[in-house]
Amino acid sequence: MVDPAAPLSWPLPSADIVGEFGDGTLRLRAPVNSDLPGLVTSSRHADSQRFTHLEKSYSRGDAEAFLRTMARSPVAMLWIVDDPDSPGQFGGTLEVRLVSREARCVELGYTTAPHLRGRGLMTAVARMVTEFLFDYRVHRVQIKANPENAASCAVAVNAGFAHEGTARDAEMLRGRFNDLDTFARLSTDE
Ligand SMILES: CC(C)(COP(=O)(O)OP(=O)(O)OC[C@H]1O[C@@H](n2cnc3c(N)ncnc32)[C@H](O)[C@@H]1OP(=O)(O)O)[C@@H](O)C(=O)NCCC(=O)NCCS
């Protein structure tokens, strides 16, 4: 039996995480160069611009730099969400960020490619990755979202995360303070 006080082993395994999505396959996989155009399109989309720090002029070079940074990051891991309709194509991103090894706590960040939004894809991804994280001894998975970002908040709630509260003026985005809602699931939740 592993000592519950032992810190989380990090990084986590970076292998593909695979599940079901409707009649098809849900796959989280490593980034490849052919994901770059999809990353650019997704990052330039109006919703991404409104709720993230991504630049309007987000370029292929920015996408390359992002993938390099993530590959080297000691505190974050990135999976690409495979397009369930076109296997091998870009369908979104899923980031797992280490919050505390001692508290075995991580945070999720996500984007769905614009052409796949509103079909339950990120909800399915958040559910699947959370089960994977619990299997690897993560105790707390949290999501922080601007309460005005209805889609992001809906993903958290629909994936079984409890709304814990609202931190006021917790983020500065494009010259404006935003509140941030926190949602979480614990490995011990029912
Ligand atoms: C947030 C995001 C990842 C959601 O991805 P998705 O695959 O479309 O998510 P899902 O289809 O699983 O769920 C979206 C939910 O939001 C709801 N939704 C979408 N737009 C909405 C809106 N404008 N108002 C209210 N609800 C909305 C959908 O109806 C759905 O909920 P439901 O299943 O209860 O009907 C996607 O919109 C996105 O990439 N946004 C831009 C980047 C971003 O904001 N990332 C999060 C930063 S915290």
Automatic annotation (TrEMBL):
UniProt superkingdom: Bacteria
Gene3D superfamilies per UniProt: 3.40.630.30
Cited SUPFAM superfamilies: Acyl-CoA N-acyltransferases (Nat) (SSF55729)
Any coiled-coil regions, as ranges: none
GO molecular function: protein N-terminal-serine acetyltransferase activity; protein-N-terminal-alanine acetyltransferase activity
Gene Ontology CC, one term: cytoplasm
Organism: Corynebacterium glyciniphilum AJ 3170
InterPro entries: Acyl_CoA_acyltransferase, GNAT_dom, Ribosomal_N-acetyltransferase
The N-acetyltransferase domain, residue ranges: 38-189
Protein name, per record: N-acetyltransferase domain-containing protein
